[in-house]
Specification:
By secondary structure, this protein is mostly beta strands. It contains one helix and eleven strands; from the N terminus they run E-E-E-E-H-E-E-E-E-E-E-E.
């Protein structure tokens, strides 16, 4: 079974940081994500998606992301319920973030265009800038070490079946 969510959206308000009794950081935030416009629609419909990040990812978001920031989130859906003050059962669905990146818009700066690339949990720019982003300790790139430290394969034409 697959439970995977990948979304990009803007923070609807500043993220909220809390600490658990054991000292773990947990950050709650909401992303505004526009749906594609349908034929004949004048305005896009916006979904307001509740998200939660833990540990270093929570600290990173709360320290560097503010209302309006563009975030890319990779995580899983989680549902739970509770009884509110009036005794009614409230159901909650949220994204539990395993990887979060603050996205940078392409802009013209100095002599050339600034672009962002992402590799192994770090974000860096072509003009020499660097921004760190954190991956939760549970998430691991599934194929990160398949070929050792050298990604180049030594294959001659004699090794190919065609």
């Amino acid at each position: 079974m697959i439970n995977r969510v990948v979304i990009t959206g803007r923070l609807s308000r500043d993220p909220e940081l809390r600490k658990t009794q054991s000292g773990l950081s947990v950050c709650s935030f909401q992303l505004a994500v526009d749906r594609p416009k349908l034929k004949g629609q004048d305005e896009a419909v916006t979904d307001w998606i509740s998200c939660q990040a833990w540990r270093q990812a929570a600290d990173y978001i709360c320290n560097y992301a503010k209302k309006g920031a563009l975030l890319a989130v990779d995580g899983r859906l989680q549902t739970h319920s509770y009884d509110n003050a009036s005794g009614q059962k409230v159901h909650v669905t949220e994204v539990v973030c395993e990887r979060v990146e603050i996205q940078r818009q392409a802009s013209t700066q100095g002599s050339g265009k600034q672009q962002t690339r992402s590799s192994q949990g770090y974000q860096y720019t072509d003009d020499g800038g660097f921004a760190n982003n954190y991956t939760s300790t549970r998430y691991q790139e599934p194929f990160a070490n398949d070929y050792g430290s050298d990604p180049a394969l030594d294959i001659s034409s004699d090794d190919l079946p065609f």
